[in-house]
Specification:
Length: 244
């Protein structure tokens, strides 16, 4: 099922779900336009692009890259323990010709049980429709401590246990911790979130560490579409991921 969004077991996904999650704070006059993102995705030959349903509906005819459709989401306005409710169904994803679905889980949140219940329903339906499942898994909430290595591995294991095909997690900067997280993911693939915009040299060094630790690629947004040369940085990341 992963053949459309992976190449040789690796992937580079262009993430553009930040508008719901962060509001407009990440955007400028250029990248606020989804058409600009779609142009980058096509020219950069990304393996997939990740959107929420509203953008997928309104720009579907322009999407020439495999589509990962996010099925749940939230804003960052509330400061309580997070919950990301389902806002799109698997049936809608099929109608929008999605090649995979994405779902965010906040482990450690007091609402974890509700998140798991919603994911179980989505996962069951996705299997029926033969759609791969990418989970965004983040430890969040008042109960979560500061041991990022521990929680990174825990997030990877949760993805495996719940039935994810690809598990997107945040990298804590420690390659040994990431290697252990990848082991905990078993046969599920681990991709790393690109995070906030950083210097290119730092980003590329981090991509090397991530791939050396056994990850299957990146799901990256701001470090691409906020860059002055999005295609150039994309090509440099691809060379590292596929060892070109």
């Amino acid at each position: 099922m992963l053949g459309k969004i992976m190449k040789d077991g690796k992937t580079l996904i262009l993430a553009y779900d930040q508008g719901l999650e962060h509001g407009p704070s990440d955007f400028d006059e250029k990248n606020v336009n989804p058409e600009y993102i779609l142009k980058i995705a096509k020219e950069g030959k990304f393996n997939a692009v990740a959107f929420h349903k509203g953008i997928a509906e309104k720009y579907r005819e322009l999407i020439k890259t495999p589509l990962v459709l996010k099925l749940n989401g939230k804003t960052n306005i509330s400061k309580e323990d997070p919950i990301s409710p389902t806002v799109c169904s698997v049936e809608e994803a099929v109608k929008l010709k999605a090649d995979a679905i994405g779902f965010t889980l906040y482990i450690g949140s007091e609402y974890e049980y509700k998140i798991f219940e919603e994911f179980a329903k989505v996962q069951k339906e996705a299997r029926r429709k033969h759609l791969p499942i990418i989970t965004w898994i983040y430890p969040r909430g008042k109960a979560v401590g500061k041991n990022e290595g521990k929680y990174m591995a825990y997030a990877a294991r949760v993805g495996l246990e719940l039935g994810a095909d690809i598990i997107k997690i945040k990298y804590n900067g420690n390659a040994r911790d990431l290697a252990w997280a990848v082991e905990n993911a078993g046969k599920a693939k681990v991709v790393i979130a690109g995070g906030v915009k950083s210097k290119e040299s730092k980003l590329l060094n981090q991509v090397r560490e991530i791939m050396d630790a056994g990850a299957a690629g990146m799901a990256i947004g701001r470090n691409i579409w906020q860059a002055k040369d999005p295609i150039g940085i994309t090509e440099r990341i691809q060379k590292i991921i596929w060892r070109r």
